[in-house]
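Structure ticket #2291
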Amino acid sequence: MENLEVSLSSLSIISRHVDKSHTQIGHQQDRQSILECLAQLLLEKDYTLLIARHVRPLVLDLLERSAERVQAGGSINHDLHERLCVALSRLLGISPDAHAFATRYFSSAPPVFQRLFFTSEQASAVQYGPRRMKLRDLMAATLRFLQSDCAKFRMLWDWSPCVSQLLTSDVMVRGSTAQCLALVCHMTDNQKAIFLRKVLSNDEILSFEESQQMEAEKALVLTNHKSVMWHQEAAHRFTMGQVVSEDLSKSVVAVCGVVLPRTVPRQAEPTSLVLVESTCQNLRRLALAVASHKSVLLEGPIGCGKTVLVEFMAALTGHTKAADILKVQLGDQTDSKVGETMVLGNYKVLGKSVICPWQNHK
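Resolution: structure written out below.
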């Protein structure tokens, strides 16, 4: 069993919500209450960055817990959905996990500005909490998603309901909406400047830019390197601040202290690899690269364990099917054309008079 030593007690906000944060956390129920509390606090826009800073390794787990609450019962809880969208947008600049999670979440969830699609009857049926997200928060979150990956979110959502928000009296809503539509329409800098001047006055543009700068300064959160450690623990001994793998959401898995998403529910840990110190160090480095969505090159002599390390990582994260992991054996006897096609891709022939586009290998 793997223990994640996260300094939960460093957050004074937790002590006001969970009385047991100052005592020994030995029972799973205690640890679950801490994690559930953190997941709820993460959706509070004033606490999102604070929580993410101190429990950065658990951000993915907290997001998965929140997503389960949003879709509990088979229907969308629009109040929690809006809170999650705003919190997720604030995490885009500080957590690589947020980008991958957003891709998975919005593949089935409605857009951030879903309330703009509601009729008056549908809007009256939605139950919001006492701290309902304001439209300015939703449009600002939408802008952050577009700025993070315009190509993806531009094609994902229907932007027609946003046009009406250019006439609202709220400067922040108008400013964020105008910025969003400028990105969606691929406006040049000159076109964007002309468009903004038609929507906002000079003073309003200045006010909007100042608010954007303040948000950017709040998002400059540095990693707290001392907030997490990890170790393999055979005995069931827990002290204050420890979280173990079994406490995490079923949609994630801890790999040497790095929390990664799982494609299938948690299963028994593979036993094909002996986790000695050097292996754990290499596995952790590989997990960090995967979490950062970076390409990885493993170097070493034949038989040193490169393939086994990747296969072990694939098994931990639920990529157990043959289609989930591709192995191409390259050597002196490998046909260069076949090797290039398998690794890089090839031209797809559509016809004699048709231009052949390049098809990346998947």
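Closing remark: The radius of gyration is 24 Å.
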